[in-house]
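Schema walk-through. Below, the input block comes first and the output block second. Nothing else is stored per chain. Lengths vary across the set, and this one has 298 residues.
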Amino acid sequence: MNLSLNGSASLDQVRILISHRYNVRMTPERLQKILARAGYGSRRACEKLIEEGRVMVDGKLARLGDGADPQTQKIAVDGETLRYKPPTYTYIMLHKPQGVLSTVRDPHGRRTVLDLVRVPERIYPVGRLDYESEGLILLTNDGDLVQRLTHPRYEHPRVYRALISGEPTAETLERWRRGIVLDGRPARFDKVEIESQTHGETWLRITVHEGRNHLVRRVAAALGHPVLRLIRVEMGPLKLGDLVPGRWRPLTAGEVKLLTGQRVPRPERRADSRKAPASRSRNSARASRPSERKKRRP
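--- output ---
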């Protein structure tokens, strides 16, 4: 289903989104996490329940560090069987425009990504973009996925299109690929390729695994080619495609499977769900690709 929405989505459009939430089958996990999610308190409080011998799994006394699958095993606390409902996760792709913060809230009242995506669930942005950058942002309530996407050891590549000032030489591009030292450690890139050059400016396609703050902008400035515009077009297996700035859509079942590595059931549409919004006009589609013409940012 190809559905994109904006911050003023109607109730029926939100219902379409909700029908695309995914109930992923659980694998064995730590008991304290299961108990905390079921409402027995913080993880530390749930660890104490286990240490005090108040938790049973399939009739056997549980020990701290034990794992369980709440869908297939009987878990009891103080003799009362755990009524466990598997978590339902929401996954949303947003094309963050310039001038929007990739945070949950801002003390200065500036717009955030949650002002653009209004859904009932408490979701959080994954993979921040700075205020003036734009492009792909994932929002979800799946904490384990957030960890997999943001921790350096998982090495999920990120692809950016960058409009830079000037026309870098082959030697400069090679220095960029090899990496330069920032903050006492090397900043390396997987690929730095020229897409086009015009009017003394260059569009680059840049692939990097590292998630250091402002990495692309800082390296470009250090090499004498400040960034004029920066757009993230890929994050791991996700591709921004033709999603227009300020619009969002739920991930497909295939995208969720690629992200989580688990089998995901095909989402079913509700009977009262309306069709997705009509396709954009030719002018809107054209606007989804950055202009090659000269652009200056304040």
